[in-house]
Design a protein that fits this description.
mainly alpha; 5 helices; elongated
Length: 182
């Protein structure tokens, strides 16, 4: 179990480093969108490449940070009951979600998007619009990469859930500050 937990720690550290790098893309999205709006409404001008760059940067931010969001337990969850459960009971539910939902979803995303992205590279696909950003293959490649990153995070979380259930760990979300859970 210790070896598996070390592997989960290593993956989580890589996920954290990746998130620390891509978090700045949120600022880039805001600044570029602000410039687009100012150019359009103050000067009556616009650039297709600028408008498309907002899409590219936004997609990059969310697709590369998706695993980290789950790592720090900031994903969307309706936790009417979950928040009041013991760590062990939460680990059982989260492990079931990893096995029954997350891993099959990630496999489906990778399977369904790999050829889509590969064809884009093979065809040397150009911009979405005339004068647009010419990195469509890279944008499409983010889809299977997102599936891979989320799948790796699911495996890491699954390992941590098993560690909680076997008594080898006190929580399956090491970044979460837990108070009062036994």
């Amino acid at each position: 179990m210790r070896l598996l937990l070390r592997a989960a720690d290593a993956h989580d550290a890589l996920s954290s480093h990746l998130a620390q790098g891509v978090k700045w893309l949120a600022l880039v999205v805001v600044l570029v969108q602000f410039i687009v709006v100012v150019l359009r409404y103050a000067y009556g001008s616009s650039f297709v490449w600028m408008q498309e760059s907002v899409i590219y940067v936004h997609a990059t931010l969310f697709m590369l940070a998706i695993g980290y969001t789950w790592l720090v337990d900031q994903h969307v969850r309706v936790d009417i009951y979950y928040a009041g459960w013991s760590v062990r009971r939460q680990a059982v539910l989260d492990l079931a979600c990893v096995v029954l939902a997350a891993l099959p979803f990630c496999a489906l995303v990778i399977w369904a998007s790999y050829d889509y992205a590969a064809r884009s590279w093979i065809q040397n696909e150009g911009p979405m619009a005339v004068g647009g950003v010419p990195f469509v293959p890279a944008l499409k490649s983010l889809i299977p990469l997102m599936g891979l990153l989320l799948g790796l995070q699911a495996v890491s979380l699954g390992i941590r859930c098993v560690a909680v259930l076997t008594g080898a760990a006190s929580t399956h979300f090491p970044h979460r500050q837990r108070q009062g859970d036994a």
